[in-house]
Design a protein that fits this description.
heterodimer, A: Sulfite Oxidase, Chain A, domain 2, 14 helices, B: mainly alpha
């Protein structure tokens, strides 16, 4: 497979004479077009032939490698002249790429050159974070979603998220921090420390799931991002591109989607920065490539497909609070005692469980994580601070 | 009234059985879906929240059939085709049938016949109260829908009673609008259709007033 790949590259892409500037530019454009064409032809071969599927992970298609270069250049790691500088990479770099070169499959234990594509297998160590109830069936997790940028129906995200670009991906860090800048995912995530945590997930629309997330504790990443002592809150922002997100062409919410946490909530050990679920990299409709998971809060407090992390001194605005402050507070902790004007919150419908079509369970305060998180809100009136 | 030759002449109109089939079809479709789910043939045919799907489906059907009821007389006025009025009553009854199923699904699947939880819902959640009021207002209309009841009440009283369809349609659409988290989608379309149907009537009524005001002169 590797040999085939090399042959197609060498046959079609011409070497570049760097002394001829105009000729070089033309050749660069031509080579790039050819590279894209070959890449898509390879993709088709992969898709058509079952036998290729297993080999797929062994090879990093050059597109992905190039995307990495683009992330780096976007991140400012490559200086001026990167447009000309990056383009020869189309033809030269694939052979140099360690993943293509050694032909070994990328494992989560090693540091991958690129973030795993949606659905790619992840290796994560099991943890003691478990739930007694059955895990939601994976199909339910992937097909019953709220991701309003793709539409307001539960099936819309699964239907339309395929168009979202998740590679290259960069996360901008700004605000009250000593380490502002753009980060590639591979700089943020320590793939050797991925953990699997089975959490309860409670949506404010009175339904729930039990999900085996894969990720790292958010605090481990926040440490790298060096928030200043003045940072009291952290805000997360979701990717926004109406061309790829049909729901975002309508102003159903004030885009982009923003959410926030108090620093102590963000640093709590339960708060997870997830890159996967069910042993695989996150599917796009569930917030690929990375999202937050805060199991004691209603689902909308989580931020999917994060592109920005902002450290702030004041409480940040949040998407649903802006849309309807009367129904959605900043804290939005799961609380059956706070009467919600839209849904009775004392009971929840269990989605994709094993208890039949109408399985329900009593909702617990802090979604069952009271022991771990109640101290965060000591002395606070939870009904006033809903 | 029951022996009105005009009504009798159209008693066996071809539209009547066709309308009946069209009105039963949404229910038959739902029954098929539930059968496929419960027999595990297609366990996720209604998605991963079949209870909520059923609620929405029944509610949407009830509102659409209700709007169809209200569309009959504008269609008659515009096309001048009188026999269409013959199917109005069964369409109205079907609207009640779907609304009653919608309410039953809510009480049974959602509230599990818990009256305390039901009371809380009615008091706290405006859209539940509005929906409940709409179904309650439909009950007298459904009861008085037979020829015998029309005869007993007399046409005038019957008409006055059945005028309730206007406020109850407004309640139903308001229930639908307030149920969703954001202003968009089907509930908005339902509201626009209802507004158009009511404005048509307002226009007709105003024209009638103007004409009768001119007549004596």
């Amino acid at each position: 497979m590797r040999i085939l790949h090399r042959r197609t590259v060498s046959q079609s892409i011409r070497p570049i004479d760097k002394t001829n500037v105009i000729g070089t530019a033309k050749l660069l454009v031509r080579n790039r077009a050819l590279a894209i064409k070959e890449d898509s032809e390879m993709e088709l071969k992969f898709r058509r032939n079952e036998a290729y599927q297993s080999l797929r992970e062994e090879i990093t298609p050059e597109r992905i490698y190039m995307d990495r270069r683009r992330v780096l250049s976007a991140a400012g790691f490559l200086g001026a002249g990167t447009i000309l500088g990056a383009l020869p990479a189309c033809s030269e770099e694939p052979q140099k790429s360690p993943l293509v070169g050694n032909g070994k499959p990328a494992t989560a234990a090693a540091v991958p050159a690129v973030h795993p594509a949606p659905g790619a297998a992840l290796t994560a160590k099991k943890t003691a974070y478990a739930v007694s109830d059955a895990t939601t069936i994976e199909q339910g997790f992937n097909e019953y979603c709220n991701f309003y940028e793709f539409g307001t129906n539960k099936g819309d995200p699964a239907r339309y998220a395929g168009r979202m670009t998740v590679s290259p991906w960069a996360v901008t860090v700004e605000g009250e921090t000593d380490a502002p800048g753009k980060y590639a995912l591979t700089d943020l995530i320590d793939y050797s420390k991925l953990e699997e945590r089975v959490y309860r997930h409670r949506c404010v629309e009175r339904w729930s799931m039990v999900i085996p997330w894969v990720g790292v504790p958010l605090h481990s990443v926040l440490t790298k991002l060096k928030p200043k002592a003045t940072a009291k809150f952290v805000q997360f922002e979701t990717y926004l591109n109406p061309k790829e997100m049909p729901g975002a062409t309508r102003r159903s919410l004030d885009w982009p989607y923003v959410e926030g946490l108090r620093m102590d909530e963000a640093k709590h050990d339960l708060t997870l920065l997830a890159v996967g679920a069910y042993g695989k990299a996150l599917q796009k409709q569930n917030g690929a490539p990375l999202r937050t998971v805060i199991p004691w809060k209603y689902g909308f407090k989580a931020t999917k497909s994060i592109v920005k992390i902002r450290f702030l001194t004041d409480m940040p605005p949040t998407a649903w609070n802006k849309a309807n402050a009367h129904e959605y507070g900043f804290y939005s902790n799961v609380n059956p005692n706070v009467k919600h004007p839209r849904w009775a919150q004392d009971v929840e419908q269990v989605i994709g469980g094993k208890g039949g079509f109408n399985e329900t369970r009593k909702t617990e305060i802090f979604n069952g994580y009271e022991k771990q998180v109640a101290s965060l809100y000591a002395g606070m009136d939870l009904k006033a601070n809903y | 009234m029951a022996h009105n030759p005009y009504l009798r002449a159209f008693g066996k109109h071809w539209m009547k059985p066709l309308t009946l089939i069209a009105l039963i079809a949404p229910f038959a479709y739902l029954a098929v879906l539930w059968t496929l789910m419960l027999t595990n043939t297609e366990p996720y045919i209604m998605g991963f929240n079949p209870v909520q799907w059923t609620h929405r489906y029944l509610g949407d059907t009830a509102i659409r059939v209700l709007l169809a009821t209200l569309a009959i007389s504008p269609i008659r006025d515009i096309t001048g085709w009188q026999p269409i009025v013959l199917i109005r009553r069964r369409i109205g009854l079907a609207a009640f049938f779907y609304a009653a199923l919608h309410l039953t699904a809510y009480l049974w699947l959602d509230k599990n016949w818990d009256l305390v939880a039901l009371w809380e819902d009615i008091v706290i959640r405006t859209y539940i109260m509005l929906g409940m009021a709409a179904v309650v207002l439909m009950i007298p209309l459904a009861i008085t829908s037979t020829n015998g009841m029309i005869r007993r009440l007399g046409r005038k009283a019957w008409d006055r009673l059945h005028w309730l369809i206007y406020p109850l349609a407004i309640l139903a659409v308001a229930h639908n609008l307030l149920m969703v988290k954001l202003i968009e989608g089907d509930p908005t379309i339902h509201a626009i259709i209802l507004a158009a149907l009511l404005l048509w009537r307002l226009g007709r009524w105003t024209m009638g007033k103007l004409k009768s005001a001119q007549a004596p002169a």
